[in-house]
Amino acid sequence: MDVSPVSPILIGASRHQRKCLSYASTKFDRQNIRGVAHIKISPANLKLATWNVKGLTDEKLIALQQFMFRQDIDILCMQETHRQLSDYFISDAGFLVVLSGGPDNQREYAGVGFLISPQIRSAVHGFCQASNRMACLKIRVPGGKICVLSVYGPHAKRPFDERFGFFHDLLQFYQSISVHGPKIILRVFNSRLYTRFPGEDAIFGEYFFKNGCQRIKSDMNRFLLMELCNACSLQIENTFTDLPLEELVTYREPGIKSMATISATTFARLDLILVE
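-> structure tokens emitted (276 positions)
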């Protein structure tokens, strides 16, 4: 099957096909969140991490904060919090917790958010809880701000309209964000790259996990991801560094043990970092 690596379905989506969304930063008590002093942090000193928490319980929140202390992590992007409502609060340990959920009339299978360490809370400029699949956080840096997005995409077996809608909404959300500095998208796009087509070498490097696939289909998430990258001039940053095979893998199929032999059919890399 001859598949073009880029098709203009996202960019060319009519307003009559999908509604155009508007995004507003969440209003919050700035003095309570940031304190009296406002600091700016150097991007070179900012340590980011991302974690699919598979349900954010009170016990897991404590464990994540302890992990951040041990690893000296400033911002942890979370996915699959399973928290239904959007919220923010200061934990007993002084962390800023930002949760972005969905409608309050259905069970939440997604949910994204952030954990911000006490030492950089004063650098927080604002945040936007866009949906249960995307949220952003702005941090003050010398000369402007940087924006970190926490994202969780629908898996490949979901209906195409749902997956298309996610990437379309993410494109709108990303383009609506105004900062004098870089924007970074972290985490799960549920997009296996499989192979690199001609012209895609500017988007991602040679160090990606190569899943086996008998047939590349044009409705796969990887093509929606490629179009998003083209539209926003993004690169998949964590495919340009040579890493051992076990460090390329971030997902294994249900029932597969963590110590099992890595194979292209039962393991994958679904966690991607997109930068301008």
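The radius of gyration is 19 Å.
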